[in-house]
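Structure first, sequence second, as always.
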């Protein structure tokens, strides 16, 4: 065996397979050899366990095992590169890629495939939206991972999908795309086959039979329908009704509001605010404000700043019950209720206590635009310590808003109406607004709730209080 190895080494061949650690020379007599020592690599199949490089044991020489770390590292890197460089595709040639549902947030485990934005055979670019998934909170786009042509839709509209679920197959070369009808498209009805040609029937003479006419009895007319009684309900016909499945967002809103009623001890207190000074402030500085900050000065920023001041004066309204404990928050995240065509969403102004009027207006405009367009993210709606709902933009005169769980209170704003008010002993018209505070009576007493609402009234009626902190 040793002679075979020496001959192979002398001829420049490499030896694979068995380890040299188990080879022992049978005879220790020296033998002349002009062979140059060759480095031989020992590894198992697949290059998975490369051990060492060693010198061929020749006559008169000792065997030395010298680790060759550089070559071992190179081989291991080469093996890993062959494994990791496989592209994620549905076929061997890597021409097609799969569009999957993206991660939707920690609290969202699935969604409903609402609509396809593209059709089979359409050209798409990288990161272009091809479908929309509706969740409990927001609508998320499914984007194309590569540029190509949509080859096939795997899921259907209305299916419940989870993150990572396959939605469509996209061909990067644009080959093999066949049109597949959407769920709302009806396949074309096949034309009925032409009737078989009528066979000619031989007419057979039939004997004539003389019959006497029989007198037919007159048909009896059907009885008239019974007349409904006076106590019977007259229901509209079913043809005039439509049944539409609730969206996931609407079901989520319904569940949260009902949970709020079942969990909290809801109580609402009211007050009215004279909007004269705040409206005059906006009228006097709206042009200069817009020129400097690039955003219009609205009334919402005044109420946000007033709510922040009231929350700092009454920190219990900014707190929340957690089991047997009360958690006080030393920060103010204001949730702004925004009505959209798909339902109510509540984006959050983070750290609103550090914002000025311009930053509040910019933040509200940005969040409202995203909510209306359906591009708002989960993170922009998570959290919040206090909610403001402005029903006055829709003409609401008075309402009792429901708390947004897990918060402890919500402020409701309403429409501004000119009403006669007594000012300095005289009756004068004033632009008045009703405001309402719904709070969790388990945590907040009536005293704190009234003081909170009174602080908002004082700040809105005299915005100079914010400057002087009085």
């Amino acid at each position: 065996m040793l002679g075979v190895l020496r001959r192979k080494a002398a001829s420049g061949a490499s030896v694979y397979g068995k380890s040299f650690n188990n080879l022992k020379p049978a005879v220790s007599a020296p033998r002349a050899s002009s062979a140059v020592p060759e480095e031989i690599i020992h590894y198992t199949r697949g290059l998975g366990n490369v051990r060492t490089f060693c010198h061929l044991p020749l006559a008169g020489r000792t065997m030395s095992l010298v680790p060759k770390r550089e070559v071992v590292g190179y081989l291991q890197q080469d093996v890993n590169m062959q494994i990791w460089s496989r592209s994620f595709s549905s076929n061997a040639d890597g021409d097609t890629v799969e569009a999957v549902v993206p991660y939707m947030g920690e609290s969202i485990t699935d969604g409903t495939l609402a609509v396809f934005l593209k059709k089979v055979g359409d050209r798409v670019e990288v990161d272009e939206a091809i479908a929309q998934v509706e969740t409990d909170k927001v609508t998320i786009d499914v984007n194309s991972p590569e540029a190509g042509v949509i080859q096939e839709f795997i899921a259907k509209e209305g299916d419940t999908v989870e993150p990572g679920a396959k939605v469509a197959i996209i061909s990067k070369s644009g080959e093999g795309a066949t049109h597949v009808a959407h769920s709302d498209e009806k396949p074309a009805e096949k034309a009925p086959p032409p009737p078989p040609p009528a066979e000619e029937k031989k007419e057979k003479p039939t004997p004539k039979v003389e019959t006497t006419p029989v007198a037919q009895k007159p048909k009896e007319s059907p009885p008239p329908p019974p007349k409904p009684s006076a106590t019977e309900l007259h229901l509209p016909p079913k043809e005039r009704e439509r049944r539409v499945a609730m969206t996931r967002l609407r079901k989520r809103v319904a569940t949260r509001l009902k949970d709020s009623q079942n969990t909290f001890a809801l109580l609402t207190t009211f007050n009215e605010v004279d909007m004269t000074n705040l409206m005059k402030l906006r009228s006097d500085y709206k042009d200069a404000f817009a020129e400097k900050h690039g955003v219009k000065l609205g009334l919402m920023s005044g109420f946000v700043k007033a709510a922040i001041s009231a929350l700092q004066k009454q920190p219990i309204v900014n707190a929340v019950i957690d089991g047997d404990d009360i958690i006080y928050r030393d920060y103010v995240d204001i949730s702004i209720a925004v009505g959209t065509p798909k339902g109510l969403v509540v984006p959050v102004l983070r750290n609103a206590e550090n914002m000025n009027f311009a930053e509040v207006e910019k933040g509200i405009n940005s969040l409202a635009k995203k909510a209306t367009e359906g591009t708002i993210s989960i993170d922009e709606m998570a959290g919040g310590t206090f909610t403001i709902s402005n029903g006055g933009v829709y003409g609401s005169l008075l309402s009792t808003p429901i708390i947004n769980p897990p918060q402890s209170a919500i402020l409701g704003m309403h429409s501004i109406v000119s009403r006669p008010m007594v000012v300095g002993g005289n009756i004068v018209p004033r632009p008045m607004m009703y405001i309402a505070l719904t709070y969790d009576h388990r945590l907040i007493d009536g005293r704190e709730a009234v003081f909170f609402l009174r602080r908002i009234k004082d700040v809105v009626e005299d915005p100079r209080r914010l400057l002087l902190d009085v």
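Margin note: The two ends are 101 Å apart (CA to CA).
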